[in-house]
Design a protein that fits this description.
The protein is α+β, with helices and mostly antiparallel strands. It has 13 helices and 21 strands.
């Protein structure tokens, strides 16, 4: 957990310069784990983000907008009732604890000035937001229970018990040294287990920065560590303290006496707040992207299974249709030999000469419950039924193969997606072209709708190759747009042959003939088509290219499906 006591204290000290004195304008609850306080102070608006998501719990100023649900949650409505119009008069925490208190001055129903408090507990799965009156009596909480307390309205709010020591009140190095056990406890274990606010990641990165061994350290090392921690604490909230990302999931806070040493103190320094805002935004966007893609893959996989099952049934029916000529033969041979058959005898089978096969003998099975004439009628009826079924089922197979090909293109598009916009475009496409009624829940649909930007326009990735602009489609919607709307007649269009892939468009502003385009430009465009296709890891991939005016869409075809002619082919090795 990177949001430790040091980060908490630094955020609070930065916020104190910004939000104390601010008026609460609006309150939003984008998700059940997020509260956004819109504040106004000194002519500026600020969004204070309070997040209790276990994976990204935090408090910081945020510049990234979040969708506001059409129907507000109950806790949001309560906060609006008690805090909108109020003024923040203080923000604080105890020691390096991760429980933050924001104190508001508000007017009650009788127009009396009262104090209300908002407690934000940043504690991973136990993170919570609690609103109380001036006497710490709970008005309501985002979550009403945790492992050791109930947080119901009208109950007294109690802080989580503190069992660790305060490093802040240690006065000198000798006092710190006396606390270190004589046994072989590692330094990181001692610090995290003994003191408030020390996280494992912070301790590990601090020891790395100071080049101190976790298990083999000297008195001098401990002295350097003590001095560094005291300097860090005394400079929290200043521009000499900063956060740095150390992995995709974690970061740590550091002190650097040389940082920003220009002699000028930056007014309203919010470096740690800005870092946290950017870090968690990227983390949430990545998580949202992965979850959205996985949810869509589930939907598409379910549709894929249905098509496979449909094809299996069609192929089974086609195999049955292959025997239609056998039933016609039986009917004809029985008719030709009807005079030899004793109608008074119930035959289980009858052997006749097959005049289609050099008069070789053939045994024809018969249904003993009906007459020979009825058997003949039955065989001809079965032949005609299978003959008619063959044309219908063959057409059904063509449609099923097209559907399978289209759904496989969706799977490729999802694997090729890089942004949430790409995912949302794929969702819009399948919502119109694939039956998702039984495959996607109402909650999942709402998630996609909330993530969708109402002013979203198709954004096409582009690169420059030797002065030529080249555009790359990442999904069927983008492919259709590039090839059929965005392309000019004499632009050059590329696509890997007979495999799913991106449509690549080479902009041709000078209207040069294909033979006038430099060979290396054509080849690099073909290479892009190969790399952005299912054949990306194959050898000797044929890539077709032609003028964009020769690319058309057949009536009723699915998104991304086009036909083209007058093309040439490059083999990309």
């Amino acid at each position: 957990m990177a949001f430790d006591g040091f980060v908490t204290k630094s955020v609070i000290l930065e916020l104190k310069e910004i939000i104390v004195g601010a008026k609460v304008n609006k309150i939003f609850e984008p998700t059940k784990n997020d509260i956004i306080l819109n504040l106004y102070n000194n002519g500026q608006n600020y969004n204070l983000s309070l997040c209790t998501n276990p994976e990204s719990c935090r408090i910081c100023l945020s510049k990234y907008p979040k969708p506001n649900p059409q129907n507000a949650y109950n806790f949001c409505m309560l906060l609006r009732k008690y805090l909108i119009g109020g003024k923040i008069i203080n923000i604080s925490n105890y020691d390096l604890e991760r429980t933050i208190e924001i104190r508001f001055e508000c007017y009650n129903e009788l127009n009396d000035l009262v104090i209300r408090k908002l407690f934000i507990e940043i504690m991973s799965r136990q993170s919570n937001i609690i609103l109380t009156n001036s006497n710490n009596i709970i008005i309501d909480a985002l979550k009403h229970f945790d492992n050791s307390r109930d947080l119901l309205p009208a109950h007294e709010y109690n802080f989580t018990p503190i069992s660790k020591k305060s490093f802040i009140i240690i006065n000198n190095f000798e006092e710190f040294l006396n606390l270190i056990p004589s046994n072989e406890t590692s330094l990181s274990t001692f610090l995290t287990d003994s003191f408030i606010g020390f996280s494992k990641i912070f301790v590990k990165e601090t020891l790395n920065k100071l080049k101190i061994s976790d298990n083999n350290y000297s008195k001098e090392d401990l002295s350097r560590l003590f001095d560094y921690l005291k300097l860090l604490i005394s400079n929290l909230g200043t521009n000499k303290v900063y956060c740095m990302q150390i992995s995709d999931k974690d970061y740590s806070i550091f002190y650097d006496s040389e940082k920003n040493s220009t002699g000028k103190e930056e007014k309203n320094n919010i470096e740690v707040n800005n870092f946290l805002d950017d870090f968690y935004y990227r983390k949430e966007q990545t998580s949202l992207f992965i979850n959205s893609r996985n949810n869509l893959l589930k939907i598409v996989s379910s549709s894929l299974k249905k098509v496979y099952k449909k094809l299996e049934n069609i192929n089974s029916k086609l195999k049955e249709c292959e025997e239609k000529d056998k039933f016609k033969l039986y009917g004809e041979l029985l008719t030709a030999n009807l005079y030899k058959i004793d109608s008074s005898f119930n035959y289980e089978s009858f052997t006749v000469e097959n005049y289609y096969d050099n008069n070789n003998l053939i045994t024809i099975p018969l249904d003993v419950s009906i007459s020979v004439q009825k058997n003949i009628e039955k065989y001809f009826k079965k032949y005609n039924k299978l003959k008619n079924a063959l044309s219908i089922v063959s057409e059904q197979k063509k449609e099923a193969v097209k559907e399978l090909d289209y759904i496989e293109s969706i799977v490729f598009n999802l694997s090729n997606a890089k942004t949430l916009n790409d995912i949302n475009e794929v969702y819009e496409e399948i919502a119109e072209n694939i039956n998702t009624k039984n495959n996607v829940s109402k909650n999942e649909k709402n998630k996609f709708r909330n993530n969708k930007n109402p002013t979203h326009k198709i954004e096409i990735e582009s690169i420059i190759i030797d002065g030529f602009t080249v555009y790359i489609g990442k999904n069927n919607i983008q492919n259709d747009y590039i090839s059929l709307k965005f392309a000019r007649p004499n632009d050059i269009w590329f696509h890997s042959q007979k495999v799913h892939g991106s449509h690549i468009l080479l902009r041709n502003p000078e209207n040069l003939g294909i033979d006038e385009i430099p060979e290396n430009v054509l080849f690099n465009c073909a290479r892009l088509a190969k790399e952005n296709s299912k054949a990306t890891s194959s050898l000797n991939v044929p890539v077709d290219y032609c003028l964009a005016k020769f690319v058309k869409k057949s009536a009723g075809s699915k998104p991304g499906m086009v036909i083209y002619n007058n093309f040439k082919t490059i083999i990309v090795k």
